[in-house]
From TrEMBL:
NCBIfam families: PRK00241.1
Gene: nudC
EC number: 3.6.1.22
Keyword Metal-binding on entry: yes
Enzyme class: hydrolase
Residue intervals of the Nudix hydrolase domain: 157-282
Keyword line: Hydrolase, Magnesium, Metal-binding, NAD
Protein's name according to its UniProt entry: NAD(+) diphosphatase
Taxonomic source organism: Rhodococcus olei
Length: 300
C-alpha cells in the first residue's frame, strides 16, 4: 500500500460502542416499566457532563427518580441485560467529566452510553417546538421521537453530517489549518457541513476550495465518528492536492494553513495534543477527535 492509500488502523474513540440499543423495546411501555425496577440512570447536565468515578461513568438506580419511567428520560438500551436510561439535570455535584475530557478513558460500553445520551438529550433541548407546524412537542418512544401537540406529526433525533478531510500531497506533506478562533500553533485537518442536495465527496471538494482555495483529487473514505457537539457525525476522508497551489482563505474561517512534513507531524504527535505546554510550532488535536486518528494513520 502506497502513502496515497493509507487507512485508519484504529476505530475512532467515540465510534466505539458495546451498547445493545434494544430498539424493539422503545415502544414497549410494559417492558420498560417492568425493567425500570432494576434499571440504571445516567445523569447529564447541560454542559454534557456526567458524574465519573476515576475512568468510569457513575450510573444510579432509576428508582431514585420515581417508581416508573419519568417524563423526559431517554432509553439508551441494555448493558449486561440491565436497562439504562439518560436524564438531563440542571446541576450536579462531585467529580464531573465530558466526552472531550474523559472519552479516551471510557470503555466501549461507557463511550457508547455517554455519546448517545449527549446526542439525544441535545436534540430534545432544541426540539421543544415542531419544525413543521411550530406547535409544542412531547417526547414519545422512550425519548426517541417527539409528537406535535397540534397535528401529531412525529419528528426524530437529528444528526447533521459533516465531512472532515486530511489533505496530503501523495508523498510526505500534509495540509493542516488553524481556525480563526483557535490559539496559535493549534492545527487540524479541514472540515465542514454537508449542504442540502450535496454528496459527501462534493462537499469535501467544495469545503476545501472555500476554506483554503485548493482543488483536490482522489477523495477516499476513511471512517466516521459521532460528534454530539451538538448533533453531528464526522465523516472522514483523505484527498490529494498540489502543495504548489497558492493558499487562499476565501470564506474567512481559516486564519492560517501550512504544509507540514511527516517528521514535523510525528514530532507533534509525540508531544501530545493541543493541551501540551511545549513551545512547539505545531500542536494537533487530542485522541477523542477522529482528526487525531486520521493524522496518526497518515504519519505512520
Amino acid at each position: 500500500m502506497g502513502v496515497a492509500d493509507f487507512e485508519m488502523t484504529e476505530v475512532p474513540l467515540l465510534s466505539r460502542s458495546a451498547l445493545d440499543r434494544a430498539e424493539e423495546l422503545r415502544a414497549d411501555t410494559e417492558a420498560l416499566r417492568t425493567g425500570w425496577a432494576d434499571a440504571l440512570v445516567l445523569r447529564v447536565n447541560h454542559r454534557g457532563q456526567a458524574r465519573i468515578d476515576g475512568a468510569d461513568l457513575v450510573l444510579e438506580p432509576a428508582t431514585e427518580l420515581g417508581a416508573e419511567p419519568v417524563p423526559g428520560a431517554v432509553f439508551l438500551g441494555r448493558r449486561e441485560g440491565v436497562h439504562v436510561w439518560a436524564v438531563r439535570v440542571p446541576a450536579m455535584t462531585g467529580q464531573l467529566g465530558d466526552l472531550r475530557m474523559i472519552g479516551h478513558r471510557l470503555d466501549d460500553a461507557s463511550a457508547g452510553l455517554l455519546t448517545t445520551a449527549v446526542a439525544v438529550l441535545n436534540w430534545h433541548d432544541a426540539a421543544a417546538y415542531s419544525a413543521i407546524d411550530g406547535a409544542a412537542t412531547t417526547p414519545t418512544m422512550s425519548g426517541w421521537s417527539r409528537h406535535s401537540t397540534s397535528t401529531g406529526h412525529e419528528e426524530f433525533p437529528r444528526t447533521d453530517p459533516a465531512v472532515i478531510c486530511l489533505v496530503h500531497d501523495g508523498a510526505d506533506r500534509v495540509l493542516l489549518a488553524r481556525n480563526g478562533t483557535w490559539p496559535e500553533r493549534r492545527f487540524s485537518v479541514l472540515a465542514g457541513f454537508v449542504e442540502a442536495g450535496e454528496s459527501l465527496e462534493a462537499c469535501v471538494a467544495r469545503e476545501i476550495a472555500e476554506e483554503v482555495g485548493v482543488p483536490v483529487r482522489d477523495i477516499r473514505y476513511l471512517g466516521s465518528q459521532p460528534w454530539p457537539f451538538p448533533r453531528s457525525v464526522m465523516i472522514g476522508f483523505s484527498a490529494i492536492a498540489d502543495p504548489e497551489t497558492p493558499l487562499n482563505f476565501a470564506d474567512g474561517e481559516i486564519a492560517e494553513a501550512r504544509w507540514f512534513g511527516r517528521d514535523e507531524v510525528r514530532d507533534a504527535l509525540a508531544l501530545g495534543d493541543w493541551t501540551s505546554p511545549e513551545d512547539a510550532p505545531l500542536l494537533v488535536p487530542g485522541s477523542v477527535s477522529i482528526a487525531r486518528g486520521m493524522i496518526e494513520a497518515w504519519a505512520k
